[in-house]
């Protein structure tokens, strides 16, 4: 099974590298002004897209949730390794 997983991982890595290289080397040039984090609906005219100020919703909440989770896991592991595992009687 490990050999099959290795082959799948190698194929996936090669596919990733080929896709990244092909998009970097043959992709169209994007100007920084035209790049947006939030997609504008096709019904909106381009002028409205330039004036509308939309922010990704919920991103900050998700970041805080992951931060809280990682802090919790860090201190839980600190407690498990520091206080429970090394008791000498």
Describe this structure in words.
0% of the residues are buried. The chain has 89 residues and is mostly helical. The protein has helices at 2-26, 46-51, 59-84. It has 3 helices and no strands. The chain starts with a helix and ends in a 5-residue tail after the last helix. The mean pLDDT is 76.
Structural features:
3 helices, 89 residues, mainly alpha, 64% helix
Secondary structure: elements and pairs:
Layout: H1 2-26, H2 46-51, H3 59-84
**C-alpha geometry:** flat
Largest sheet: none
Which percent range fits the helix content? 55-70%
- How much is the radius of gyration in Å? 23 Å
Beta-strand content estimate: under 5%
Q: Span from first to last CA?
A: 43 Å
Average pLDDT number: 76
H/E element sequence = HHH
E-strand count? 0
Q: Give me the number of helical elements.
A: 3
Unreliable stretches covering 5 or more consecutive residues: none
Category by helix and strand content? mainly alpha
Provide a quick synopsis of the model.
The chain has 89 residues and is an all-alpha fold.
